[in-house]
Amino acid sequence: MNQPNLKTHHKRTGQPRGAFPVMQTMEMAAVAIGVPISLVKAAKRAGCKAFLVSGRTDTAILIPYLFQMLHKGSDLPDGFASWREMLEAEKAKREGIKRQQDEKSVMLTADAQRQAGEAMVMVFAELERRDRELPPALAGLPAVEIFKRMNADTEAIRRNLKTKFEEVGK
To answer: I need a surface site. Which of 9, 28, 41, 53 has the fewest CB within 10 A?
Structure first.
């Protein structure tokens, strides 16, 4: 029987070791292979087996794992290096929105929808009132007088609706 030598074969994988050293710390491994420490820490969090007892890092396992991680890609949106960075950006956006609401330069969508709905209710109420009130009031009048009263009623509706729609957003 031929037992593999621990110096030339890896315990976990049984593969020949090669020329990749075991580093004493993650930081040393990151510097040695030329990657950011955050990437090495992400590999550790993801369950890479390159991290040995007492903080040592086996670069023979780490390097292929990092290539595998990079090949899979990231589900982070473009322009973000980490989820923490994205969270900070989202918090900054949220604070910006709150500041704009405090300054009354923007309003909530629900408030805008409610106010626009109230204004449209007034439009249809005015039209229904016109349909209900004008025909009996205009019965028997000459055409010129009907035109004047219809025009005056239209202008009154416009004035009322203009003031109502100016209130939207305030």
So the answer is: 53
* Residue positions counted in the chain: 170
Q: What are phi and psi of 57, to 5 degrees?
A: -130, 125
Considering the entire predicted model, what is its pTM?
Answer: 0.38
Name the phi and psi angles at 144, rounded to 5: -65, -40
| Count of domains forming the chain | 1
Domain annotation covers residue 163: yes
114 inside domain: yes
Please tell me the predicted confidence (pLDDT) of residue 161. 85
Is 130 contained in some domain? yes
Q: What is the pLDDT of residues 68-118, one digit of tens each?
A: 877 666 677 777 777 888 899 999 999 998 898 888 888 888 888 888 888
Asked if residue 131 is part of any domain, the answer here is yes
Neighbours of 90 (CB within 10 A): 10
Instruction: Determine the Cα angle at 108 with ends 105 and 114, to 5°.
Output: 120
Give the chain's residues under pLDDT 50.
1, 3-4, 6
